[in-house]
Write a structure and sequence with these properties.
With about 325 residues, the chain is of the alpha/beta class. It has a single domain, classed as TIM Barrel. It is built from ten helices and twelve strands. It has a twelve-stranded mixed β-sheet with strand order 7-8-9-6-5-4-3-2-1-10-11-12. Strand 10 and strand 11 form a beta hairpin. It is globular and about 60 Å long. Bound molecules: S-adenosylmethionine (SAM) and iron/sulfur cluster. S-adenosylmethionine binds next to strand 3, strand 5 and helix 10.
C-alpha cells in the first residue's frame, strides 16, 4: 500500500519542516508584512507534546529529515526541550535560524546530534543589513556563523538576493567561503502575503552566476536527487556556493517537502493556498492520518497551483497564502 506521504504525482515526502513559532527577533522586510502583522496567541501554537506527537506520526510514516524553522525557532521558550524531544527520532535533524541566539543552543545541538545549521544573512554591509532586517545584529550573526564553523557544524548561509538592494554583494559572500568551509546559498526572492514582491526585484540564478563570473572561476558540483540548490565551488575554495532558483527554474518534480505551521496546519507546498488543520483534529481525538493523506493527494504538480511557470506573469495580488514568517520557510 502506498504511504500516506506519497502524492498523486508519485512524489514521496520524507522531509518535514516544522515551524516552532511565528514570532521573531528580526523584522526582515521580504519575510513579514510591514503592516497588519498578526502574531499567533500562545493557545494557538502546538504545545511541545502536540508537536512531538505529530512529528512522531510523520516519522512512523517515513519522514527521515526534520528541519526546525519559524519565525525564529530559537525565540520559542521551549526551543531546547523541543530539540531534545525531536532528537530522539531516527531522522536527520536540522534548523534554519537568523543566528542571533545560536550560542545559547550550541550545546543542545551537539547533545542531540543536530549537525546542520542554516543561518540567514542577507548583507555584510551594516547599513543595508539594518535596512533589510530593521534591527542591528550583523556583527553578532557573523560571529555566530564563524563559531559554528569552528565547532564543526555544517553551516549554510542563506542570502535572499534582491535587485538593487544586495545583489552586488554576492561576490563578497562567496569570498567569505575561501578559507572557511561555509556553504553560501543564494535564494531567489519569492512572493508571499504582504511582502511587496514584484518580478522586477528578482535576481535570477543566471544573473547571479553572471555577477560572479567576472571575479571567480568555479565548477558545477553534483547535486543530490532532492536538492533545491544548484551547487558550485570556486577553484581552491574550502566552501561552496549554491543557488535556490524557485522563481526562474522551479524544482517541483523532485519535491519531497511538507510543512507544519506553528499552529498545527499542514501545507503540502510553500505556495499552496490551502492548509489542513491537524492540530484541531488532534485535540478533538480525530483521525489525523487520513487528513495527512488527503492533503498529500491534493498537492499540485507545480508551485502550489498558484504561481505562473514564467515568474514574470505571477501577479502577487492574486496569491492566497500566508506571509513567509507565518508559514515557516
Ligand atoms: N528566522 C529564521 C531565518 O531567518 O533563517 C527561519 C525562518 S525564515 C522564514 C527561513 C528562510 O526563509 C530564511 O532563509 C529567509 O531568508 C527565507 N525567506 C523568507 N522570506 C523569503 C522570500 N520572500 N523569498 C525568499 N526567501 C525567503
Ligand atoms: Fe525573522 Fe527569519 Fe523572517 Fe527574518 S527571515 S523576519 S529572521 S523569520
Amino acid at each position: 500500500m502506498a504511504s500516506i506521504l506519497t502524492d498523486r504525482h508519485g512524489r514521496f515526502h520524507d522531509y518535514l519542516r516544522i515551524s516552532l513559532t511565528d514570532a521573531c527577533n528580526l523584522r526582515c522586510q521580504y519575510c513579514m508584512p510591514v503592516e497588519d502583522m498578526h502574531f499567533m496567541n500562545r493557545s494557538e501554537l502546538m504545545t511541545v507534546d502536540e508537536l512531538d506527537t505529530l512529528a512522531g506520526l510523520f516519522v512512523r510514516h517515513g519522514v527521515r529529515k526534520i528541519r526546525l524553522t519559524g519565525g525564529e525557532p530559537l525565540v520559542r521558550k521551549e526551543a531546547a526541550e523541543i530539540i531534545e524531544r525531536l532528537g530522539r527520532y531516527p531522522v536527520t535533524l536540522a534548523i534554519t535560524t537568523n543566528g542571533v541566539l545560536v550560542d545559547r543552543f550550541v550545546d543542545v545541538f551537539q547533545r542531540v546530534g543536530l549537525r546542520s545549521v542554516n543561518v540567514s544573512l542577507d548583507s555584510l554591509d551594516p547599513t543595508v543589513n539594518q535596512m533589510i532586517t530593521r534591527r542591528d545584529h550583523l556583527q553578532i550573526v557573523v560571529e555566530q556563523i564563524e563559531q559554528l564553523v569552528a565547532r564543526g557544524f555544517h553551516v549554510k548561509v542563506n542570502m535572499v538576493v534582491m535587485k538593487g538592494v544586495n545583489e552586488f554583494e554576492v561576490g563578497d559572500f562567496v569570498a567569505w567561503s575561501k578559507d572557511l568551509p561555509l556553504h553560501i546559498r543564494f535564494i531567489e526572492y519569492m512572493p508571499f502575503d504582504g511582502n511587496g514582491w514584484s518580478s522586477a526585484q528578482v535576481t535570477t540564478h543566471q544573473q547571479i552566476l553572471e555577477l560572479l563570473e567576472d571575479r571567480f572561476v568555479f565548477d558545477k558540483l553534483q547535486d543530490g536527487p532532492n536538492d533545491t540548490a544548484r551547487a558550485y565551488r570556486v577553484k581552491g575554495y574550502r566552501g561552496t556556493f549554491a543557488v535556490i532558483s524557485t522563481m526562474s527554474q522551479p524544482f517541483c518534480e523532485t519535491c519531497n517537502r511538507i510543512r507544519l505551521t506553528a499552529d498545527g496546519k499542514l501545507k503540502n507546498c510553500l505556495f499552496s493556498s490551502g492548509e489542513t488543520d491537524l492540530l484541531t483534529a488532534l485535540r478533538a481525538g480525530q483521525d489525523v492520518e487520513s487528513l495527512i493523506r488527503d492533503t498529500l493527494l491534493a498537492k499540485h504538480a507545480r508551485l502550489g497551483g498558484q504561481l505562473a511557470d514564467d515568474y514574470h506573469l505571477t501577479d502577487p495580488d492574486t496569491l492566497q497564502n500566508r506571509s513567509m514568517i507565518a508559514i515557516g520557510g
